[in-house]
Amino acid sequence: RPQPEAAKSAAALEDLGHDVLVDPVLEVSYSSQSIDFPLQAAIAVTSGNGVRALSKLATTAQKRRIPVYAVGDKTAELAREAGFANVQSAKGTVDDLVRLLSEARPKAVVYVCGRDRKGRLEDKLADCGLTVTVAERYHADKSKVFALKRSTLFPMVRLMAFFFIPSVPQ
Known about the structure:
- The protein is an alpha/beta fold and 170 residues long.
- The protein is built from 7 helices and 6 strands, in the order αββααβαβαβαβα.
- Strand 3, helix 4 and strand 4 form a beta-alpha-beta unit.
- Helix 2 runs parallel beside helix 4.
- The chain is globular.
- The relative contact order is 0.18.
């Protein structure tokens, strides 16, 4: 898992008494390109990385004013921790988020997302008659650094776990 999730997973394993080495194979990069938030717009986020990207670009006033609709409770909590005042969780899947936004009927939806994504939230929202702007503001790529040498690591390892995210480029 990329950071900061890799560090959180490592801490949980360390709390269980395991020795942990962390060397993410993916790096997340965030764009500094601004986002235009139309009046009476809502923001949709489907991941922690979307929240982190949004948080880097939204002003304090925007964080207080613009409602954020998150796919699930963890994403919603991250948005609250980032300073967003009006956050609602769809408590589930992209389809649950579509239902929540369809009921809210904002004038526009700004979907803050990554370059590589699945579920096509923007298409589903458009099919419901909502105006959607896609704001791709992060992407995950292979890490440029593989800090641990396999030849020295493998003889010492009793158990190794690999996490795989199928929607990320190979």
